[in-house]
Amino acid sequence: MSRRIEHSSSYAFPVAQVHAGLITEQYWRDRLNKVGGPGATLDQVTTGPGTISVAMSQSIPAEHLPSIVSKVRPGDLVIKRTETWGTLDGDHAEGTFTAEVVGAPATISGTQTLTADNSGSNVQVEGKAEVRIPLIGGKIENAIADEVLRLITKEQEFTEQWLGS
Question: What was the pLDDT predicted at 109?
């Protein structure tokens, strides 16, 4: 079983400007510094012509976790994440994302698509959270998906501010 994740972020900036920001290492350093949480690290950045692949580590302190998660996996959670963005093709770029909880059978994966819209641009995120634990995996998937959506919203707010500065 898995839980679907869907989110749409609108930006008041043209696609080319959003894409140019997303494929710079400084953007990722600044984003992790601002919304990455305690001890967040940028582990690897690989850039190519108009592309980027980023690996990072983040942690969620135990006191911020839902009780169902703490019962199954006590202590702070360490999450290994990757994000990629491909080249801009007209007003369209595609990327991927993954996250896995270290020491737990929990993964998140999906795609992200950057497109133009009437007032600027939009990033559409589609993915799934999957926890392979019998009986309670679905409850944990829901908790993880809700947290991911909150994090995406914080990252979107940061991106909007970062692009405007």
Answer: 96
